[in-house]
Structure formats: structure tokens, C-alpha cells
Amino acid sequence: MYFDKAEVLDRSELEKLQAERLRKTIEQAANSPYYRESFKKNNIDSSIIKTVDDIKRLPFTTKDDLRSQYPYGLLTKPLDEFVRLHASSGTTGTPTAVFYTQKDLDTWADLMARSMYAVGVRRSDVLQNMSGYGLFTGGLGIHYGSERLGCLTVPAGAGNTKRQIKLIRDFNVTALHIIPSFALYFAGKVREEGYDPAEMPWKIALIGAEPHTEHTRQKIEELLHIKAYNSYGLSEMNGPGVAFECTEQKGMHVWEDSYIAEVIDPETGEHVAEGEIGELVMTTLTREGMPIIRYRTRDLTRFVPGKCKCGRTSRRIDRIVGRADDMLIIKGVNIYPMQIEKIVMAMPEVGQNYVIELFREGFIDQIKVKVEIKDQFFVEDMRVLQGLQKRIAAKLRDEILVTPRVELVQRNSIPKSEGKAQRVIDLREVEN
């Protein structure tokens, strides 16, 4: 059973459709100031695309390119034709913003409905969205996909486990959208409240937003007595729904009628052999308001070789195994160490050194920032130090959207490296 006939197109038909849509995407992108200049500089127009392989003739787009065009440099239509935007976190640095026309939102909702259908969610299901709403794309992406599929949708949002459990029981919720680390935490809380997960109404969990291992997925399924399905998305490509598992759980199908996926060597930019790990590069094919071409995601993955038993013909990517840059993902939020540095180093009480520690408390990933304080501010009055600690934590929360633990230490307490400073220390247990 398939939601859309595009899921089972013959490969030759699919690649012909991709080439056609890529040509249209180039023509549309040329209406934006950024791509108009880029295409002129590189002598590019849609006529160079004969087959989908010709995408290699196009230049990459990077996160820095998006930031340089903030806020409107990638738009292909007048501003009054857009109905929504999503943006990355951050108040001090330049964020990235993604704009959507109504047609873009409709296309995104269709892809999300297709994704959910692929793992067994049906119109008769009740879906509880346990993800944050707002500028983060995950919450609204799943929400509109669920409604497009016809599910009764419960917009519970993140946190508040007792309320989540009550809603699930009261409304006989059969499908959950939940980030992996919270799913593990939630399983323990369900038992603490006196409920047996095996007797809860849920059947399906949609998990994503943060990298996780197969071991984590199996643990979620075991603890919650549920089938958990992995997904991949990023705001630059709309949000969730770029790639999704099917019930086979052997890789995530990229919806190739809407995206072109490439896996490249991060150093050379050349394609790697199928099955080899490299950096994922994505191109939109159906977004009209803000198309993005050959976007370097910095996510490391591989194409899963062979055909999927489900019958879908789109290629599959494996779970994300790491990053080609220094981005951290904590509680589903993307955080760059430089965001933290900008905040702590701008405070007059802070000395020369700091370190970011990642650790796991229960099943939840946490972040701690250890900060050296100048001698004159490291006083014996605990109220003063606690006040400073709270101020730093609040400023960091405003910047990275996650509240870190802040530890104040004396000058020269943090070991110094002879070479490049080690700013991030990962203390989380390595999962097998």
C-alpha cells in the first residue's frame, strides 16, 4: 500500500522526472538575487541539465551562503506571496531563515503524510505530537502531515510527562511523535506513574530530530512496547519528511520526486561509491518560494545498497553517523560551540577559558558549560556566584534554546592545550 504513485516509479521514469524538475528549479532559483548572481558567475542555465547526473555541474550551497543572504536574498517571489517562515536558533550570530508559500506548505504536508503512511499510520489513528512547536520545523511539520493524512492530531508539545500520559490514555493515542532521548526518559516515567507500557494504546513512534543508534531504537521499542521509525529532515529542505523509514526499517527512503540526494567526499566534493559514508548533499525539486541547490548538510551517511522489500523505488540513506563540522544536537536543537563562546566571552566576569561538556543523565543528553571566572569576581559570597551562574545560564538559554548547566571555576582550573583548544568534551557513553 502506497500513499503516492511517485513512491513506486520505475527508476528511469523517476530520474527523468528529477531532471525535468531540476531544470525548472534552476529557472525558478534564478529569480532570487543569490542564485541569479551565482549562475551568472558560473555560466549556468537550465539547458546544461540533460540528465540528473548533470547536477554535478552546479555549485554547492553552504550554511554560510544562507547566512550571507539573510533574510531575503534567496527568495524567488515577492514577500507578500509567503505565508510562513522558520529560522534557526541564535540571537547574536546571523541565523538562517526558510520561507514557505502556501503551495510549499501543501507540498510539505503531502510529503509528511506520505512518510507517516509508509510506517503504517492511517486516517483512523490518533497522533500525539510530543515535539516543540514554533520556529523549530519538527513540530509543525509533523502536525500538518498528520492532519493531511486525516488523523485526529493532539498538539501536546514537549515536556510535562504526566499531562502527556493523561492525553494518551484519555484520547486512545495510537501514534507518537517524540525525540529519541525523551522517548527513553518517558518510558521510565510511564512506569513510575504505575502504568504498563504494554497496555498503553500506542503502536507507532515517529522518532527523529537528533542522531541515534540502532541500539537506541531497539531500547525504545523494548521499553515502550512500540514500533519506532527513524526519519531525517532539515529546515533548509522544509523540515522533517525529507527521508523516512518504511515498515522494513532498513534505511530511510529519500522522496526523490521532491529531492535529489548526493553523498560526497567532504574534502574533494566528488561522489563516493554507493555504500560508502560521505557528506549528504540535498537539492529541492518542488519548492517554489525558496529553492536550494546542492546544499551541503554536513551530515554523514551513506546510500543503502540494493532494493527495499517494500517495493518503493527511491534510494535509501542510512542513519546519520556524525557531522562534517562541529555542530552539536542536544534535545533536538542544533547548537554550535561558537554560539556559546560568543555569550560567555562577552561577559566581563569571565576569564580566558571555558569548556563544553556533554553528558547523559538517565537517557537524556545534557550540556554543561564550565567557565573560568576572573579572580576579582570569584568571591566567597555564594549568593553572588549563584547570581552570576544564573545570568550566564539565562543568556545561553536565550541564544541556544536549551538551558545548560553552568559551573563556575577559578582561573587556570581548566587544562590548557598546547595546540588547538579542546572546547567540547563528550562524556556520553558510547552505545554499542
UniProtKB/TrEMBL annotation:
Does the keyword section mention Acyltransferase? no
For whether the record's keyword set contains Phosphoprotein, the answer is yes
By its UniProt entry, which Pfam families does this protein fall under? AMP-binding, AMP-binding_C_2
One example of a Gene Ontology biological process annotation: phenylacetate catabolic process
Residue limits of the AMP-dependent ligase C-terminal domain?
A: 332-428
What keywords appear on the UniProt entry? Answer: Ligase, Nucleotide-binding, Phosphopantetheine, Phosphoprotein
Q: What class of enzyme is it?
A: ligase
Top-level taxon in the UniProt lineage: Bacteria
Transmembrane portions of the chain:
none
Q: Which family does it belong to?
A: Belongs to the phenylacetyl-CoA ligase family.
Q: What does this protein do?
A: Catalyzes the activation of phenylacetic acid (PA) to phenylacetyl-CoA (PA-CoA).
What name appears for this protein in its UniProt entry? Answer: Phenylacetate-coenzyme A ligase
Q: Which organism is it from?
A: Maridesulfovibrio ferrireducens
